[in-house]
Design goal:
By secondary structure, this protein is of the alpha/beta class. It has one domain: Hypothetical Protein Ychn, Chain: A (3-Layer(aba) Sandwich). Helix content is 25%, strand content 22%. The chain has 4 helices and 7 strands, in the order βαβββαβαβαβ. Strands 6-5-2-1-7 form a 5-stranded parallel beta sheet. The protein is globular, with a radius of gyration of 15 Å.
Length: 128
């Protein structure tokens, strides 16, 4: 039986310009496909990943244009479709003006005060 692993993502948009996806979301997907029992918790600024309708296709920095923008909504939907439990800290969502109706379908919320009991359910917790 594989160990239950919780990936906590707090740093948002890490490598999304260079790699077109968040490296931790990618790692979570790969490990889940390889048979690991993965879950994902979004907190801090990373709760923005759960917001529906993001579109970075018009991003430009000087002369440079983003031709392969990140598609975080699709990344989360793919994780959810593969059985990865995806959670977001409700307090962090509220601080950013996001409500449950704004989120990708299937993303669960957890109160900050509920984190200790959530963490107890996992064999390993990786914080990024």
């Amino acid at each position: 039986m594989s160990k239950k692993v919780l990936n906590i993502v707090e740093t948002a948009y890490r490598a999304t310009l260079e790699e077109q996806d968040d490296t931790v979301l990618w790692l979570t997907q790969v490990l889940q496909w390889a048979g690991a029992d993965m879950s994902l918790l979004l907190r801090g600024n990373a709760v923005n990943y759960a917001a529906r309708g993001q579109d970075a296709s018009g991003l430009a920095l000087g002369e440079w244009r983003q031709t392969q923008p990140p598609r975080l909504e699709q990344d989360l939907e793919r994780l959810l479709g593969k059985g990865v439990r995806v959670l977001a800290v409700a307090d962090d969502l509220g601080e950013r003006g996001l409500e449950p109706r704004d989120l990708v379908s299937g993303v669960e919320t957890v109160a900050r005060s509920g984190l200790p009991s959530l963490l107890e359910r996992y064999d390993q917790v990786w914080h990024w």
